[in-house]
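User: Hey, my collaborator sent me this sequence without any context and asked if I could get a structure. I don't really work with proteins. Can you help?
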Amino acid sequence: MAKRYRVISAIAVMLISAVIFKAAAQQDPTRLRVVVNLVQLNVAVTDSKGNYVSDLRPSDFVVTEDNIPETIATFEEGNGPTKRLVDLRGTELAKGGADSGSAPEHSSLHNSSAGSSAEESPEAINASLSGANVYILFDTSNYMYRGFVFAQDAISDFIRSLENSNKVAFYSYSRDLFRAASLTADRSQVVRGVRTSVAGDDAALYNCLLLTVQDASQVPGRKVVVVFSNGPDNASMVPPEDVAELAQSAGIPVYMISTNDARLEPVSTAVFERMSAATGGKAYFAKNWRDEKKAFASIRDDLAHLYSLSYYPKPNPNRGWRSIKVSLVGDRLKKCHIRTRNGYRPKPNRFSGSDPEAPSEAVSQSSTGGAPHD
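Assistant: No problem. I've predicted the 3D structure and written it out in structure-token form, which is a compact way to encode the shape of the chain:
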């Protein structure tokens, strides 16, 4: 009886403690319940001749979401120092940002090649690539038999040229996805994954690209996916529209490199061009191995010249697809062209239960298309 009494007493104490703790938590006025989404954009700016425009300031950009003007929270060019312009609550900080010095007094139109690296040293380009996470997806289907070795050479050279970027992953696909080298800073491991890949089955490009984008979306920081494909998809269950929407919402540009043979298939050509444009990437169609190398060099240069903008969305009742528009201010920038993703779908509020309007249960910050900021 004494033992039974002790057990009942212990259970009673636990129940009373739980009730007291819950009441104290409910009465605690210092507990905040808020979820803040940070939307990140990769923006390429080129002039009428296709040359990159550099040295722009945050004040040169206007960002709207569903026609609602947004305030730029962070800003960086290439992978230079990040300028923090507003805090988590959306309050503007001191001019020039809290994390770095003041913005340049004047912006300028600086011409650098949009398609090759001839005008800049490899050291300068590699320095500006620091911090980018690059996922490479290689077509190893039976479409690749003839140009397999040349494609491996082009991809290996591209990986080596990203010497100072953060990390690189190499995946290959035919009917299934093969993660030959997970995201790593070890270039030799990635190249080894390229060299040991073999050609085989039918092509399930969209299935495997969806899985690649899902992997990339779990990693903080700037991410891009580079796809090398030699033909149409003939084995996927996932439609390309679903893949494009996921990449858009995650803020991951998709670059598509395909051979000239694939361009003979009109449906694939249209899909590749539409998907890359929607996510802020580019599509290339290479006639030969030299063009493949040029395409990879162009992507490397593009990564080195992207502007990275972010903002905390203002109140917006739209729970579905939100359109994003980025434009430039001033007459001298009127003829410039902007390339970025055109929208996103907000992530579900994981902390709010079934009610999308209910407050969250903890202080948290999630990011739509990038890493959380402190």
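In plain terms: The chain has a mean pLDDT of 77. You can pass these tokens on to your collaborator as they are.
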